Amino acid sequence: MTKRGQGKPAGLSRERIAVAAVDLVDRQGLESFGVRRLASELGVDPMSIYNHIKGKAALLDAVSEAVLAEVSATAAQWPDDWMDIARTMARGYRDMAIRHPRIFPLLATRAQTSAVAFEALERLTTAMRRAGITDQAIADAPLVLFGFLNGYLLATLSTDPGEAGGPATGAAQPAFDPALYPTMAALAPLQAGFGGEPEFERMLATVLAGIAEGAARA
Amino acid sequence: MTKRGQGKPAGLSRERIAVAAVDLVDRQGLESFGVRRLASELGVDPMSIYNHIKGKAALLDAVSEAVLAEVSATAAQWPDDWMDIARTMARGYRDMAIRHPRIFPLLATRAQTSAVAFEALERLTTAMRRAGITDQAIADAPLVLFGFLNGYLLATLSTDPGEAGGPATGAAQPAFDPALYPTMAALAPLQAGFGGEPEFERMLATVLAGIAEGAARA
DNA sequence: CCCTACTACCTACACCGTAAGTATTACCTA
DNA sequence: TAGGTAATACTTACGGTGTAGGTAGTAGGG
C-alpha cells in the first residue's frame, strides 16, 4: 500500500523552491524556518528538496539571492548622476527590506556575491568615475553606502512587530529615563519617526554628503 | 549508583555562564553553539543552565551584553569634543568586533537596550549638544554612526577565516571579472586593504564628515 | 531540629538537518 | 517499439537540538 507516486516529477525546481521559501520566511520568520517546514508547505518529502538545493545554507543563499534580485527588477531605469543612482539604489534596497523584514538579516549578514549585486556596484562606480571622482573615494563608496544601509535597516527593522503596525512606521523605541539619560530623553521627540521615510532620507543624505565630501577632500 | 552530587551548588551563576558562552562562541562559532555544548563545557547538566538563564535567546542576550560591556571597559577616559568621542567609540567598537568576530553578528542583529549602550549614546549626544549642533542632527547621529559601524563591520568580518590569517587583515574578496565588471576590476587594487585599519579610518572620517555637514546644513 | 527555598539533575518529547539507499518515472537510443 | 540510462522523488534512520516537567539533594533561618 505504500510507494504511491514515487519517481514521478512533482514539478520541483530551484526557483519554485526559492519562491516558496521566501514566502514561508516572510510569514513565519527565520527562527522556525527549516527544510521540513518548507517541504510540507510544498506538499513534498523533505529530502526531495535536496535534489535541487544542497543543504540549508544553500537554501538560505537562494532566498537572499531571490529578494536581492527584486531590487534591480523594480528599478525601471537608472539615472546618470552617481548621487541619483545611489539614491535610487538605496530606496529600492530599503523598499525590499520593508517588504521582507524577516529575510533582510540574511542579506546583511551574508556576503553578497551574486551577479545582481556585482552589476549594481559596477553601475555605481562607473557613474562615479564619469564624474571624475578620486579612485580611492570610488572604491570606498560601496562599502560606506551599503554598510550604512545594512546597519541602519537592520536596526530599524529588527524590532519584529509580529503582525501589528503598518510597514516601517516607527517601531517604538524603549523610552529613556530622563533621570539617567537626560539628553537622550530630551531628544526622544525628534526620534519619533524611527524607521520612517523622512528619517531615512535625512540619514541617506548625510551619508551621501560624507561620500561627496570625501571625494572632494582627496 | 546514580544521584551523585545532586543539589550541591556547582558554582553556577549568570555571569559565569555568560563568560563561558562568550569563550565557546569565540572558539566554535555561532552555528554549533547550543545549551548542551555550553553545559558540557561547564561540566554541568544542560538543564542547570535554565536555573540562571531563561532560554537560548536570553543566553545570546547575555553573550552580546557581555562583549558590548567590553567596549566601555577598555576606554580609559573620554575626550570632550564630540568627534573625538565618536572616533574613540568607533575604534573601541571595532576592536571589540575584531576580538569577537563570530559574536558580532549578534550585536548587529539584536536591538541593544543595555545600560552600557544607553550610556554611550548619552555621552555622545550630550557632547554634541555642548557643541551647539541642531537637535535633529544630534538625534540622527547615533543611528547613522552605529548603523554604518554595524553594517561595515558585518561586511568585513563576515568572511569567516576559520583559523587562518591575522586579525582583520583583508579578508580576500571574490575578484571581479574584468570583462563583466571593468570598473570594479580596475578599482580592485584600491580595495586591497579590505577590513584593514586605514580603510576603516577613511570610512569613519567619511561618515563623520557627513554628520558634521548635516549639522551645518540644518 | 525541622522546614523551606533553592540549586542541580534526570527523563522525556517533539523537532531538526541530512547521509544512505530504494523505487519509480521520463527520455534517449537502436 | 523495446531497452537502457539518468534523473527525480521517496523512505528510513541517526545523531543532534531546545526545553517542559518532575525529582533529589543541600543550605540557611526559625
At the first level of CATH, the class of the domain at 77-217 in chain A is Mainly Alpha
Q: Quaternary state, please?
A: homodimer
The structural class of chain A is: mainly alpha
Largest sheet of chain A: none
Number of strands of chain A: 0
Instruction: Give the DSSP E fraction of chain A (strand runs of 2 or more residues).
Output: under 5%
Number of helices of chain A: 10
- The chain-level mean pLDDT of chain A equals 88
Task: Assign a percent range to the helix content of chain A.
Answer: 55-70%
Uncertain parts of chain A: 161-169
Provide the gyration radius of chain A in Å: 21 Å
Annotated CATH homologous superfamily of the domain at 77-217 in chain A: Tetracycline Repressor, domain 2
Distance between the termini of chain A: 76 Å
Would you give an account of this structure?
The structure is a homodimer of 218-residue chains. Chain A is mainly alpha-helical and 218 residues long. The first copy, chain A, has a domain at 77-217: Tetracycline Repressor, domain 2 (Orthogonal Bundle), CATH 1.10.357.10. Chain A has 10 helices and no strands. The first copy, chain A, has helices at residues 14-28, 35-42, 46-49, 56-74, 82-99, 104-109, 115-130, 135-158, 182-187, 197-217. The model of chain A is unreliable at 161-169 (pLDDT under 50). Chains A and B meet through helix 6, helix 7, helix 8, helix 9 and helix 10 of A and helix 6, helix 7, helix 8, helix 9 and helix 10 of B. The structure holds a DNA duplex (30 and 30 nucleotides).
